[in-house]
């Protein structure tokens, strides 16, 4: 039953992604806000619409302003939603993964997105089964492995070229016709040449050590760059969280301002009601002429108090959002 439900969601996502988007910014904004209230497929639909608005300049050069004021989303988060919608196939829309996990998968090499990976804990998981932390751990491992492989490929290429060169020299020597008879005679400079050869071999060994040290230094520098990239990503995430907190803070400030305004109004109304009570206690209605404008005014005032009091009573009993 669960698999059938997933297929239905995936099918719906594929059908939705085929629908042409509106060129009306208000319509697209409304759709994005609607999708913000749900998960799964909504991440892809939001990213698709953000990309549509930006590429077609529906905000008329004010994309960032539109993001903040109309969609209530910071640019970093919006960029990641677009990345998810652009990189991942629709089948990911049927998962329960959040947008942060989907973004990590979207920034993995495509050929690794479905491959099981072994974690530091010893577990083996596919990317869509991992947490955000596990995905980042996996990406660091893949990057390190890629760098190591590239370094090894470079060394192998250099060694292969050197071997080919030596083989060519050997072949050339083998093909050359000897023009003298071989006589086992030690040349006068044989020992010197032997010593020079030994020195040359030692120099080659020293050079090889320098190469090895350079490779190690490169690997250390690469690891540092990976850590730096991670730190930058964490910083961006913190900035995004701070932006979200700022939005919440602004909303709370607005709410507090409204509460203070209502409190002032309540105080004024209470004072008015106190005055009304004094009027009622002092007023002798038998002294008022019938059908006078004063009687009509007092009657209308009493009716309004009753009507508005009942409405307020009902609103407090059944709260609703304005």
Automatic annotation (TrEMBL):
Residues 109-128 are annotated as: Disordered. It holds the Pfam family DUF3102. Keywords: Coiled coil. The keyword Coiled coil applies. InterPro entries: DUF3102. Residues 156-262 form a coiled coil. This is DUF3102 domain-containing protein. It comes from Levilactobacillus brevis (Lactobacillus brevis). The lineage of its organism: Bacteria, Bacillati, Bacillota, Bacilli, Lactobacillales.
